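A further point concerns the way the authors explain their paired sequence and structure data. For illustration, here is how one protein appears when written out as sequence plus structure tokens:
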Amino acid sequence: MQQFHSVALFIPEIKELLAEKNYVLLKQVLRECNPLDLADSWRRFDEEERLQIFKLVPSIAALKLFEILDINDQRSLLARLSEENVTPILEGMHSPDLAKIFHKLSPRMVKKMTGLIKRQEALAHIDTLMKFPQKTAGSLMHPEFVKLTPKLSARQALTRLQAITRPNQKEHLYYLFVTDEEGRALGSLTVQDLIGAPEDEKLSELMTSVDGIKIKPETDQEDVSKLFSKYRLTAAPVVDEQGRLLGVLTVDDIISVVRQEATEDIAKMAGTQARDIQESSVFRIVKFRMPWLVVTIFGEIFASFIIKSYETTLTKVIALASFSPLIAAMGGNVGSQSATIVVRSIALGHINGHQKIKTIFREMRVGLMLGILYGTFLGLVAYVLYGSRYHFHFSVVVGLGMCVSMTIAATMGSIEPILFDKLGIDPATATGPLITTITDILTIFCYFALATLLLV
């Protein structure tokens, strides 16, 4: 077994050998590097260094490295590598992985890449996958699968598997589907089921029904991940309108989807895009982050107009201004907490139907209870600092302002993701800058309205 070493230890040496163009020694060093570690360190090399490193990595490790790399890095390599270097990669990769890359290439580039693939079966599979939009079950599925008929015995099925399965198809042995003569999916089983069953037992008696887990090819990948999570699936059939088996989705595919969706949600919560995480161009990062900050700045300008309209109240009780940022900040934090929890619950499929109203009232009660606790505390602080000057009413205004702020924030933090989800907009968009801005506006309005009512 090959012994790998951490790439981090070799980075200075690799860069030095690249600068010296000592490719013979560099090739020996790269043999000691784990492709996984090399992928993690990929961004520490410039584009030209990456190209040279990839050419020198052993062929098997190069294929593994390529499969791990970010889609943009894969596209960059395909565009710059020679046909001699590209062909083994295209021939070695599975059809779904190639389809993901081809989805983001220009038609001219796709035509060039497919021209290098000699396997007609692989080309047919890629063509099938490319017909479905990105991020759908149809674009993620494996068209290579083993179909068995319900009349086969366990022994006959095992014999057939041995006869038709090639070495590079071993992963598909874990997910076996039983179909009728028209190709409609009836049930599923595993190799373990076949090995452990009596030799003459029919597959119709061994299989588990798949009626509840059939997935249409147009289904969004996020909905697919919810189905896998709910039923704890390791594989699921993708079927057409007539129920015919088109392909198989595996839990490995869904793990990458969950990571991708989580990254996108986190980025949206921060008011940016997932590409921001690995983007090196400052100008593109600014472009990603600007839109929601525009919403924020106009929202806060509106909040400034609200403060201006209560200028008389502020002039008479200037101490109100000292608590305004604190109340707004606490409201924003509570709103973000509620929104984050609700967004995650929606993503996991935990909030459906009547549970939406129940969730809103739950978050409202949480906000109210937190508001009472922190409002009481802040009211006491206000009384200690300004009680002798503005009396008890001032403490009541500050305490109520905190209570109202946190209640409104928690309520809005739950309503907005649910409303966005209802409208078909990603709920993650409702968090971050949007929640904070709306909370600030409502908090400032309520705070100064209370102050005007009780103090002026």
Notes: Residues 13 and 408 are 57 Å apart (CA to CA). The two ends are 82 Å apart (CA to CA). The first helix runs from residue 7 to 20. The chain has three domains: 7-133, 146-252, 274-455.
